[in-house]
Amino acid sequence: MAKTIIVAAPHSGSGKTLVTLGLLRALRNRGTKVASFKVGPDYIDPQFHAAASGRECINLDLWAMGRDHCAWLLDTHTKDAEIAIIEGVMGLFDGPEGAPGSTADLAATLDLPVLLVIDAAHQAQSVAALVEGFQKFRKDVEIAGLFLNRVKSDRHATLLHEALRPSGIPVIGQMRQVDSLSLPSRHLGLVQAIENQSLEKTLESAASGVARETKLDTIFSIAGNGANHLLDGHFSLPPLAQSIAIARDEAFSFAYPHVLAGWRVKGADLTFFSPLADDAPDPSAAAIYLPGGYPELHAGKLASNTRFMNGLRNFSGLIYGECGGYMALGESLTDDSGKTHAMAGLLPLETSFKDRKLHLGYRQLSPLSALWPCKLRGHEFHYATIIREGDGDRIFGAATANGTSLPEMGLRRGKVMGSFAHVISVAP
Questions:
Q1: What are the DSSP calls for 303-316, one per residue?
Q2: Is position 323 annotated as part of the catalytic site?
């Protein structure tokens, strides 16, 4: 089984994504077979992992999936790897309110060690107090190594290393401030990997910056031993149908690899089409899946792509849209400039990005339709506002992670349905 380690940080913005990418590419460049994972609900960081490692990155979400599902995914996707690197979410101990789901919770539950990435740009000896606090905060979480990011000079490095020596935790590497590259962002996180024209150069620069002062072999010594949990794949979300046409391009890219892989495990045949290329979905499929993404950035092009739109309107099977896909099934989408674009018109929904409002959080989902017969876990993350939502059956009862009730979500008309919820897993 692959050696496994979690890359975490005291807070968001510490550089753990760039360090993770640098480690993945540096190890891959040495000929090491690497696998990667991302803690929590995230579509964008895994795209960068996949570009760095050369293989799909899988999400591990303890709150949404539960221990056994996370363990099964970890086992399943590391069978041919030598090392697995799991990037944490937010700060090490940050997670859903009143429920386990932080990076630390996953580390403790799966008995995995942590490599703590520290942004050292604005501190020297004080780093020792920070590390001691994280080291002692939870006895069930092992911080096995430290990585210093944004180190300014040799003198700065010496001060940091001397301050940290009494902790007994090895500093396995560091990245200079000049090497701490930035990745462009937009309102849902980083600009997608498929849109980043200089991504390969960035990945190689990150790998060079990490490898220059990192004991890559030491990662194997501090990483945990993978354990075969001997579980089967019954955790997978049931497929929408046995043949599914799935939208996939820059406008509709938020589909979780573990969901699609689970559908294949259950015998579903998946085909892909690009709405931006004006592809029509396969008319012989039994269902269409429109995942989330950035349709608001391409609303004008989507509105004019008649083969795509007519393919939706003339489809006789089930159509399911999540978030961006849900908006595309509506009557109109107004972009951030205030221009309104006609959408498929299959659901009585009008949405807008002119006055953006953040909707963010985990969601407990109770299906109100026959789409799925089981309780689900998901999340909501978008800036769209609903201008009008007409008559139609709701598809989900909803609550927050801590059980606070929310209004019912989504719309259904006949075989067409969708909501702003991104489904992650069958509820554990």
A1: HH-HHHHHHHHT--
A2: yes
